[in-house]
Each structure stands twice: as structure tokens, then as C-alpha cells.
Design a protein that fits this description.
Blueprint: E1 2-4, E2 42-49, H1 54-63, E3 68-77, H2 80-92, E4 96-100, H3 107-117, E5 122-126, E6 130-132, H4 136-146, E7 150-158, E8 169-170, H5 175-183, E9 210-212, E10 214-215, E11 219-223, H6 224-230, H7 242-252, E12 256-267, H8 276-295, H9 301-331
Parallel strand pairs: 1-4, 2-3, 2-5, 3-4, 7-12
Antiparallel strand pairs: 5-11, 6-12, 8-10, 9-12
């Protein structure tokens, strides 16, 4: 079914727009009777903008999970062809809820809109180009039930070729860990705790459930109460880094984040039809905002300004090859064969 909402006011990205959870009374009717065991249900929230055909595959995979009470698709803007396919799927399955009419409000605000429309005891934030494998959600809910101190978890996020994807599990992003990652300073002191890499996908994978500092918003499963307690996604971020910020705030509340290696999803990157330089621009803006929000007391203003300058200089250097690659893929151009 489709939920058409009135256009939302434009977000002032210079301020944090707080997430307002549902009133407690809204969930009273779902409380189990005394002595009855509560059954965990999960609402899947996807935020989609020009995603492409993989969106339908992702929606079908989510709807096939028996523990999913609903899938909320927040449509920030898709092609007419994609909208028709989504509407046809919604007509055939009333667990699919579509929220439209608000324009492209960004990922963070889209997640908060989707959370308000969700009804499950748990929330799964899932990228629209991420395809669940059978049973992965049931496994995630089982792990959360068996670990009461856990606030959120992720699973092994794989590329289409089965390799573990970069960014699925990582240490918290700080100016220092970014420096270590960028220049691979970990090679100088590989066993020193202050020289650990940001991304952990190249580290030896564990066969056991482990605690990690940060996970990706591509697959982020948590009890609904945790999302409400942390305050949802920070809407000051338009695109990228909002998941890092969420994990940072979650860690400050003492919440434990788990990585479950024996369950996996496939994240098909490169399906978005958005010009990649726009994505990189938002990523650069978000990183500078994140550093300013959380590290101003520890780092001098001048150091943060220099870091911001380095971030945008890096973007300027990458602009030409990013644009060239996008043009070649978009128009089917290819480099001439070598003689």
C-alpha cells in the first residue's frame, strides 16, 4: 500500500533536527499479556533515491523473511519505471508500505521518516541495493535475544563476488584513525592499539560473534527502543557518515555493537544513477561536520580546519577521474586498445 504524505519543509542542515519517537501509548496495544512471551518482529526501513532495478530484488528478499512485519520504502525519488514496479509489488503484498511526496530529504531524514511508519519491535536499516539471504534476519534477532546487552548488530556484508565489503565493520572514525587508514601507518606498528586501521575487512575474520565499534548503515539491526533512545539518525547529515555518527552516539550510551560472521547479505554497489561526484561531495561535507561535532574539544580548531581542507583537496584531485569513469560507463565509451 502507498502512503502519500504532504511535502515536508526543507531541512536546515545547519542545525540538528531531532528524531521524535512514537509516544509510548502507541505501542501499548502490542504489549503481550502477562506470562506470554513477546515475539520479536522486524520492520525493514529502506531509503531509495534513483536506485535502479536491484531495488525490486532487495524488496522481494526482505518480504520473503517470515519475521518481517513490514517493509517501509521511503521513496526520495525514483524513475517512473521503478515506481510502477514498486507499486505493483505493493499491490500484491500489503506488508510493503511506500512513503512518498516529500522529495529527496537525504538518508538520515529518510530513515527517521521510515522509522515513524514502522511497527515492529525491531528495526533493520537496509540499503536499497542490499539483498538479504534467507534466514539472515531470523539469525540476527536470535543473536540479539541471546545478548541482552547488545544494542545493535550487523552481519557479514559481501560484494557480489563474495568478498567482504569495506566498511561493514570498522573502528570508530576519528581524525587519527583516518590518518592511519589513509597513509597505512598501521604498517609501522601493526600491534599497537593506537595504530589500528579504520576498516577491518582485511583483518583476519573471526568465526565467533565479536564486538565492534562501528557498523555500516547498509545493514543495521537493533531493537526499536534503542533507535528511540539514541534519538534516531542525526538529520544534519544529508548523505554518508550518519551511520558512523549513530554508532558514536550509541557507544556513548554504553551500547554494545555486534558483528555476526555466520550470516551474510550481498551489497550490490554501483547501482545508483546519481552522478558520483555529487555523492563524494556530500561525503566530504558529512565528514567535516562529524569531526566538528565530536572532536572539537580534543582537537584545536586550526587542526580541524586543516583536516577539512585536506578532505576537499582530495575531492578536487579525484573529481576528474571520477567524472571520466562515470562518462565512460554512462555513454558506453571505452579506452582505445593499445597497439
Amino acid at each position: 500500500m502507498a502512503l502519500n504524505i504532504q511535502p515536508l519543509p526543507s531541512t536546515d542542515h545547519s542545525q540538528i533536527v531531532p528524531y521524535r519517537p512514537k509516544p509510548a501509548a502507541a505501542s501499548e496495544g502490542r504489549r503481550p499479556k502477562p506470562g506470554a512471551e513477546a515475539v520479536a518482529t522486524c520492520s525493514v526501513v529502506m531509503v531509495s533515491f534513483r536506485t535502479g532495478p536491484v531495488l525490486i530484488e532487495s524488496l522481494k528478499a526482505a518480504l520473503s523473511e517470515s519475521c518481517v512485519d513490514c517493509v517501509v520504502l521511503v521513496d526520495n525519488g525514483n524513475s517512473a519505471e521503478t515506481r510502477r514496479a514498486v507499486d505493483a509489488l505493493a499491490a500484491a503484498n500489503d506488508r510493503l508500505r511506500i512513503v512518498r511526496g516529500h522529495g529527496n530529504v537525504g538518508f538520515s531524514r529518510g530513515c527517521n521518516i521510515g522509522a515513524k511508519a514502522a511497527s515492529g519491535s525491531h528495526l533493520l536499516l537496509l540499503n536499497p541495493d542490499c539483498v538479504l539471504r534467507p534466514g539472515v534476519l531470523a539469525r540476527g534477532l536470535e543473536v540479539l535475544a541471546g545478548n541482552p546487552t547488545a544494542a545493535a548488530l550487523t552481519v557479514r556484508i559481501e560484494n557480489a563476488d563474495g568478498t567482504e565489503q569495506r566498511g561493514g565493520r570498522r573502528n570508530l572514525m576519528t581524525p587519527w584513525t583516518c590518518l592511519v587508514e589513509q597513509f597505512r601507518l598501521d604498517r609501522l606498528m601493526p600491534n599497537h592499539p593506537h595504530f589500528q586501521r579504520l576498516n577491518l575487512n582485511e583483518t583476519e575474520p573471526s568465526d565467533e560473534i565479536t564486538s565492534v565499534q562501528c557498523i555500516s548503515g547498509a545493514f543495521m539491526l537493533m531493537p526499536r527502543a534503542v533507535y528511540d533512545r539514541v534519538g534516531g539518525m542525526d538529520e544534519d547529515y544529508f548523505l554518508h557518515v550518519e551511520d558512523v555518527d549513530f554508532c558514536f552516539r550509541l557507544q556513548k550510551t554504553g551500547g554494545q555493537i555486534l558483528y555476526v560472521p555466520d550470516a551474510a547479505v550481498t551489497h550490490v554497489k554501483g547501482t545508483s544513477r546519481v552522478f558520483p561526484l555529487v555523492v563524494e561531495w556530500h561525503k566530504s561535507v558529512s565528514v567535516t561536520k562529524y569531526f566538528s561535532k565530536h572532536f572539537r574539544p580534543q582537537y584545536p580548531d586550526m587542526a580541524l580546519r586543516l583536516i577539512s581542507l585536506a578532505i576537499f583537496l582530495r575531492l578536487a584531485v579525484r573529481a576528474v577521474p571520477l567524472t571520466a569513469t562515470w562518462l565512460m560507463e554512462r555513454f558506453g565509451w571505452s579506452t582505445p586498445p593499445k597497439a
